[in-house]
C-alpha cells in the first residue's frame, strides 16, 4: 500500500500536468522512470489510467474515476503534513503530559497562567499519576516527576529547587501524643500513608545513617493534599513536601517534627525521550518550566 500510494501520487501529477515531460521535471525523476512507474501501477490495478499519444496524455474514464477520490485524499494528506511541520516551528497543538500530583501543584500550576498567555495555541493535556510512568508506552510527549523515578534513558530537565520532606501533625494531635524524636518512634504513632504505584510509600530518613520506616495508620491516600488535610484534622502524622505545608506550619495549624532527619534531595524534573524533531510546543514548555 505504501508503494501504491507513492505511485498514485505520481499518477495524479502526470494527470495534472498532462505531460510525462513536465511531470518528470516537477518530480525530479527521469521520464523513462516515470513511464515505468505508471505502467507498473496500471498492471497491478488491472486498469488503464492514462491515454497516451505522441502529442498528449490524458486520464481515461477509469483514471478520472480514480482521480475523483484520489485528488481530495492527497490534498488532505498534504495539508496534514503541512500543519504538522508548522508545529515543529510555531508552538501550537496538544502536548500530552503525565505528571505526579504534587508536581502538578508545585511546578505546573504555578506557571500555567503565564504559559497559556504566552502560547494561546498550545493545549496541555495533563494526566496525574503518582507512580512512575513510561511516556513512550503511554504515548505522552513528556512527564514531570522527582528524579529518583525517572528512567536513565530519558532526557531530564530540572524544573524545581531541591525538595525536603516534612513530617507534620496538628496541635490537637500532639495534645495526646508524644513528639517523635527519631524515625523509629513513628511506630508508636498513627501515620497517614501516601500511595505511590501499587503500595504505600515507605518513609525514608537520613542523619548520619539512612532509616526506612514502614508506617501504619488509619488511612492511605494517593494525593498529598489529602494527607495534609487529614493531618491538619488530627487524624495522625503525615508526610509531605515542606513547600506544601510551610504556610500551615507558619499559621500553627501544623507542627513539624523530625526536621533534622529530612535532608534535601533533587526535586522535580521534566523528562522526555528525544530531542530529535522536537515539537515547538514542547520546547516552549521546557523553557517555561526550566529552573533558571
Provide a count of the helices. Answer: 9
Characterize the overall form: rod-shaped
Low-confidence stretches: none
Average of per-residue pLDDT values: 89
CA distance, first residue to last residue:
49 Å
- SS-derived structural category: alpha/beta
Percent helix among the residues? 40-55%
Quaternary organisation of the protein chains: single chain
N to C succession of SSEs: HHHEEHEHEEEEHEEEEEHEHEEH
> What kind of sheet is the major sheet?
6 strands, mixed
Beta-strand percentage range: 15-25%
Radius of gyration: 31 Å
Instruction: Count all strands and give the number.
Output: 15
Tell me what you see in this structure.
This protein starts with a helix and ends with a helix. α2 packs across α3 (31-45). It is rod-shaped. The chain is built from 9 helices and 15 strands. Strands 7, 8, 9, 12, 13 and 14 form a 6-stranded mixed β-sheet that branches. It has a 5-stranded mixed β-sheet with strand order 4-3-5-15-6, with helices on one face. The protein has a two-stranded antiparallel sheet with strand order 1-2. The chain has helices spanning 2-17, 20-27, 31-45, 61-89, 101-118, 171-174, 224-232, 242-250, 280-289; strands spanning 50-52, 57-59, 93-99, 122-128, 142-146, 155-158, 165-169, 191-196, 199-200, 203-206, 210-213, 220-221, 237-241, 255-257, 268-272. With 292 residues, the protein is α/β, with parallel strands linked by helices.
Amino acid at each position: 500500500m505504501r508503494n501504491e500510494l507513492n505511485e498514485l501520487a505520481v499518477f495524479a501529477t502526470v494527470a495534472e500536468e498532462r505531460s510525462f515531460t513536465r511531470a518528470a521535471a516537477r518530480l525530479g525523476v527521469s521520464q523513462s522512470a516515470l513511464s515505468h512507474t505508471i505502467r507498473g501501477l496500471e498492471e497491478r490495478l488491472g486498469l488503464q489510467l492514462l491515454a497516451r499519444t505522441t502529442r498528449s496524455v490524458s486520464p481515461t474514464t477509469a483514471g478520472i474515476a480514480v482521480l475523483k477520490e484520489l485528488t481530495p485524499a492527497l490534498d488532505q494528506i498534504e495539508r496534514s503534513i503541512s500543519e504538522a511541520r508548522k508545529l515543529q516551528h510555531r508552538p501550537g497543538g496538544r502536548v500530552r503530559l503525565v505528571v505526579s500530583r504534587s508536581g502538578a501543584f508545585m511546578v505546573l500550576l504555578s506557571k500555567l497562567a503565564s504559559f497559556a498567555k504566552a502560547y494561546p495555541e498550545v493545549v496541555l493535556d495533563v494526566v496525574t499519576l503518582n507512580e512512575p510512568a513510561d511516556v513512550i508506552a503511554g504515548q505522552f510527549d513528556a512527564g514531570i516527576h522527582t528524579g529518583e523515578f525517572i528512567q536513565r534513558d530519558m532526557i531530564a530537565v530540572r524544573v524545581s529547587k531541591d525538595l525536603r520532606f516534612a513530617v507534620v501533625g496538628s496541635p490537637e494531635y500532639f495534645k495526646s501524643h508524644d513528639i517523635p524524636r527519631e524515625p523509629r518512634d513513628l511506630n508508636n504513632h498513627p501515620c497517614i500513608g501516601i500511595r505511590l504505584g501499587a503500595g504505600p510509600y515507605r518513609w525514608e530518613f537520613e542523619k548520619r545513617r539512612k532509616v526506612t520506616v514502614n508506617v501504619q495508620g488509619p488511612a492511605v491516600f494517593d494525593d498529598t493534599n489529602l494527607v495534609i488535610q487529614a493531618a491538619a484534622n488530627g487524624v495522625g502524622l503525615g508526610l509531605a513536601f515542606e513547600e506544601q505545608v510551610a504556610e500551615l506550619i507558619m499559621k500553627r495549624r501544623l507542627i513539624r517534627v523530625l526536621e533534622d532527619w529530612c535532608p534535601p534531595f533533587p526535586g522535580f524534573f521534566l523528562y522526555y525521550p528525544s530531542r530529535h524533531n522536537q515539537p515547538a510546543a514542547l520546547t516552549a514548555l521546557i523553557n517555561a518550566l526550566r529552573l533558571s
